[in-house]
Amino acid sequence: MKCPKDGCEMKEKTEDDIKVDECPECDGVWLDWGELQRATDNRVTEYEVNYRGKSGRNCPRCGNRMRKGDLHSVIVEECECGLFFDKGEIRQITIYS
Ligand SMILES: [Zn+2]
Ligand SMILES: [Zn+2]
Question: Domains of the chain: which residue ranges?
């Protein structure tokens, strides 16, 4: 899967049974919604994203234009497939680090 930010090939990584894709270039992280839910013990779901407008980037899974959203005060880029965090942002809402 390619990083939506810079197009680099992302590396799949499994930590505590949670599967994430990490970009070696920008340290961005992609999570499928199911994985995020598991990473947060179901505290965070896709229904909590507040829509903030269109993203300029495309979803690495389906290729559709992603949306910008506010998720627990973190701005993420999301699609129905999952969501993309910039470097370090994922630590603000999940146990994953
Ligand atoms: Zn990247
Ligand atoms: Zn998608």
Answer: 11-92
Q: How remote is the CA of residue 5 from the centroid of ligand 2, in Å?
A: 14
Q: Give mean pLDDT, residues 48-56.
A: 95
* Bridge partner residues of 15 (DSSP): 18
Q: DSSP state, 91? A: G
Long-range contacts of 64-69 (CB under 8 A, 24+ apart): 66/4
The rounded Å distance from CA 48 to ligand 1 centre is 25
Nearest alpha-carbon partner for 4 in 57, 52, 40: 57
pTM of the entire structure?
A: 0.91
User: What single letter denotes the amino acid at residue 40?
Assistant: T
